[in-house]
Amino acid sequence: MLASHNLVETEFKEILFEKRPCLDHSGNAVPGLYNAWIILNNPQQYNSYTTEAVKEVILAMRAASNDRTVVAVVFTAVGDKAFCTGGNTKEYAEYYASNPQEYKQYMRLFNDMVSSILMNDKPVVNRVNGMRIGGGQEIGMACDFSIAQDLSRFGQAGPKHGSAPDGGSTDFLPLFVGIENSMFSCTVCDPWSAHEALRYGLLTEIVPALKLNGEFIPNPMVHVDKWVNERGDIIYGKSKSGEELVKAKETLKASVVDLSALDEATEKICTKLMYLMPNCLSKTINSLRKHKLEHWDKNKESNRDWLALNMMTEAKAGFRAFNDGPKGQREVDFVKLRQMLAQGHEWNDDLIRAISPQFQAE
Q1: What is the mean pLDDT of residues 224-240?
Q2: How far apart are CA 209 and CA 305, in angstroms?
Q3: What is the structure's pLDDT at 354?
Q4: What residues does CATH 3.90.226.10 cover in the chain?
């Protein structure tokens, strides 16, 4: 009888945990070897993670890491709209806002989730089935490989909604895309298309997800090839506009989403990983992960402290505006906020009421 090294045995309720047979180069199932699929299961809220889901991801990563029959881990989500958009804003707004002591404990769990990816004994593949935004971007970057469908978008949301991308993006993103691109993404929060993300070095591979008349086509909403605008700038993966955008939307409407190419590409990289010496593979991955861990381990605890205290001010306002604001108006009045702070107004409920969209109709 082999010893179990899991801390606890668990029944997964918030996420899905599946062991799928490894495939050989001919596509045949390999007896006794599996890939562990850890699947976020909250598509109604764009696969944002609740506190309970975070706990389950940690336990699932640990279980996959310890399982002797598992070759690789696939981290993904249900549906085709989003891999993950970060923490559950309803939970943030209704429970953690104004409770920094509680949010600090939550961030201990979040940090452990990121670390459970970075310290997994198996290679972790992020199957990006849709948007990878905010904390979703951060847990995605903690993975070793990212295979994305080309309708996906990538980016941050923190400064727009009262937080800072200190759950991994400020540590990891410069390693992928450099300081300038990281600065723009983490502050301005404009999302990148999958094609831009691939070009910047954020992804391993992208595959088409739209079928038109039974054939895969690239994302019609972006310029897939190099394109020179009127100023001579080379654009790649930028969103279309004007008449091009109208036609692109028509193409999108006439097409259907099919993630079979994403599944095939995911299985393909898992197969390649199977045909490697397991200990040499593990050592190589861990040596490369050190570049992420160097920054992550240095900053994660001080970031946790700051993010908790921020729940008393900007996060309290930002998350409640996003959760409670009317459709199309989920951000605070940034100009009024700056004006009030410039006049020396203290952070209190009067300030939050003055800048929050949910109170403006009163």
Answers
A1: 60
A2: 40
A3: 97
A4: 15-218+257-311
3-state SS, residue 146: strand
Query: What's the CA gap between 103 and 96, in Å, rounded?
Result: 6
Instruction: Please tell me what DSSP assigns to residue 361.
Output: T
Average pLDDT of the chain is: 94
Question: Which run of H or E residues covers position 302?
Answer: helix 278-309
Question: What is 15-218+257-311's CATH number, 3.40.30.10, 3.90.226.10, 3.40.718.10, 3.40.50.10350?
Answer: 3.90.226.10
Position 227 scores a pLDDT of 52
Residue 236's pLDDT band (cuts 50, 70, 90): low
pLDDT in tens, 263-320: 999 999 999 999 999 999 999 999 999 999 999 999 999 999 999 999 999 999 999 9
Closest to 63 (Cα-Cα) out of 107, 121, 104, 146: 121
Tokens 């001579």 locate to 232
pLDDT at 47: 98
162 alpha-carbon distance from chain centroid: 18
* DSSP notation for 195-222: HHHHHHT--SEEE--EEETTEEE--TTB
269 sits in which H/E element? helix 260-274
Radius of gyration of the chain (CA): 21
